[in-house]
Amino acid sequence: MKNPFYVARGTINGKRIERSTGQKTYAAAKRQCERIAAEIIAGDAHSVPEGELTVQQVISLFRQAGRDAGFLDRIEKHFQYTPVAEIRNAEMRAAANAIYPKAAPATIRRRLYTPMKAVLNFAANEELCAPPRLVSPSGGKRKIQFFTPEEADAVLVALAAEQNQFLVTLVTGLFGQSMRMGEAITLDSRDVSLSHRYAILRNTKNGEERIISLTSRTVAAWSRLPTIGVPGSLFRCADGHSFDHGNNRGGQISKPFSRAVETAGLDPARYTPHICRHSWATWFYDQTKDVLRLKTEGGWKSTEYERYVKMVAPGIGRVAGKRGWSFTALDPGGT
Questions:
Q1: CA angle (271 as vertex; 267, 274 as ends), nearest 5
Q2: I need a surface site. Which of 15, 62, 71, 264 has the fewest CB within 10 A?
Q3: Is 15 helix (H, G, I), strand (E, B) or coil?
């Protein structure tokens, strides 16, 4: 009988690989091939001397651990087999010139230095290399971008017209809660209680689980999901499969989200899925003035949450509340 599954064949790190993907469709098999390659590369990382450990191997380990892999594709392509021990400030400046030649310092910090430091710190914690001593470029102020409640509603109306009906409920959660994209797409339905209005986020950016309080609008939207009470991912692709976890900054829904943003009359280059989290924090603090809840619900271990406390957007929280985004602790059922 012919094997119904696609077989992965090739060479990785000089090793000949032939392994069943366990998948019957080409698209699913291709995704499985990427996972197989990552597992092999990551496994090799623990068996090589520190001086020979490559950037590609460390990034594979980082992804295997379920960490936020945003912006790592370009970094991996640039450095590839470069030993981690050779990554110094000079190499990082060269990478910045090659990958982001015209980018502002703030962009280079966010897209190159921050993810690279995260990867190298992860490897150092695994005792695979020394802690990094990289100095990020100075200059350029960080800009806060957020949706107004009216703009958010316009985006949701546009998303409701998409074929994948999970999208509008997912983005409702991004606006109404503190979730990052990676936390949302890995949320298991068994960790959601609509009756008690909470969800447990397990795959978080800082590695620590946290419980978030669900707003009435989120509860209403999620109650229509066919996956509530069904083991597995709460949010799915149009074909019913779970989203790929490789990109945690919104790449999984970037195309339909961009279409919705354009339909709402906004610029997709400025308004990405991650801006939903900025919007939540902006609305939340203006409405509640509760610094502790902002920090706790947002899952910040750094002082990054303070930017929302210092920013003034008077009245935006009140408008959000009128549109159903109520964050008061005793909200009995929304407005």
A1: 165
A2: 15
A3: strand
Looking at residue 149, the DSSP 8-state letter turns out to be H
Q: Is 185 helix (H, G, I), strand (E, B) or coil?
A: helix
d(CA 127, CA 105): 31
Query: What are φ and ψ of residue 316, in 5° steps?
Result: -70, -30
- Give the C-alpha separation, 234 to 201, whole Å: 12
Distance CA 111, CA 9 (A): 33
Q: Please give the Cα distance from 48 to 71 (Å, whole number).
A: 26
Q: Is the pLDDT higher at 127 or at 231?
A: 231
Kindly list the structural domains of the chain, giving each domain's residue range(s) and its CATH number in brackets, ordered by start. Answer: 149-322 (1.10.443.10)
Residue 226 structure tokens: 């066919």
Going by pLDDT thresholds of 50, 70 and 90, the confidence category of residue 335 is very low
CB 177 within 8 A of CB 169: no
Alpha helices in 144-193 (DSSP H): 149-159, 166-176, 181-185
User: For the whole model, what pTM was predicted?
Assistant: 0.66
Query: Under DSSP, is residue 12 helix (H, G, I), strand (E, B) or coil?
Result: strand
Contact 26, 41 (CB under 8 A): no
**Residue among 123, 117, 124, 92 nearest 105 (CA):** 92
3-class DSSP state for residue 96? helix
